[in-house]
Amino acid sequence: MLFKKPKKLSAETLAELKRYVDSRMLPDMMMKESEAFDSEPMTESRAAMPLQAPRSSGKRRTKGMPLGSAGFAPAAQGLDDALKHLDESFSATLLRRIDEKNMSDAQCYKKAQIDRKLFSKIRSQDDYRPSKQTAISFALALELDLGETNDLLMKAGYTLSKSSKADVIVEYFIIHGIYDKFLVNEALYEFDQPLL
């Protein structure tokens, strides 16, 4: 089987990607600067700054009662009911997406560059949880949009996080409709991130 020579990322694309990563990571940088400020030694100017009391949610909690999502103690049957109505698994979602894209299983795992044995394990074990890199590789192979990608990742227990440079790079390529895994890996390499 002949492999096509992978395309190279242009200098313009890398520069645009760097700007995109910086813009997506900026809130986290501000947060780190804020944390650094909080860890600075107390000076006269800092001592003069008024301290803010933490806000209260206004909800009172009885000791020993776990809070539900609304801040109230869940009903006794709540957990059992939730466990009976689990969402579609990663395996089921992946196989459904393959069918929706009119691909064969082999076309999908080859395009994702995933080993046939691993794909077979995912197919046969409904509760199989792949690595995040594997899930992203399938999203790229299926050419899923950002919402579909996050849905697939969520089924495996992951998400694309703006606090992760690697995730922001993957997000950039998906938003721009570039699903070539070689190019994504080249960009990850340029930013010293783990490859898919």
Throw out a few tags for this protein:
mainly alpha, 196 residues, 55% helix, 10 helices
Helical content stands at: 55-70%
Order of helices and strands: HHHHHHHHHH
Strand content: under 5%
Are there runs of 5+ residues with pLDDT below 50, and where? Answer: 1-5, 49-54, 56-63
Q: Give the termini separation.
A: 22 Å
User: Mean pLDDT score, rounded?
Assistant: 80
Radius of gyration (Å)? 23 Å
Helix and strand content put the structural class at mainly alpha
Q: Total helix count?
A: 10
Description:
The chain is mostly helical and 196 residues long. It has 10 helices and no strands. The protein has helices spanning 11-39, 44-47, 78-84, 90-100, 105-111, 116-124, 132-141, 146-155, 165-175, 181-190. α4 (90-100) runs antiparallel to α8. The protein is globular, with a radius of gyration of 23 Å. Residues 1-5, 49-54 and 56-63 have low confidence and may be disordered.
Describe the secondary structure blueprint for this structure.
Layout: H1 11-39, H2 44-47, H3 78-84, H4 90-100, H5 105-111, H6 116-124, H7 132-141, H8 146-155, H9 165-175, H10 181-190
In short:
This protein is mainly α and 196 residues long.
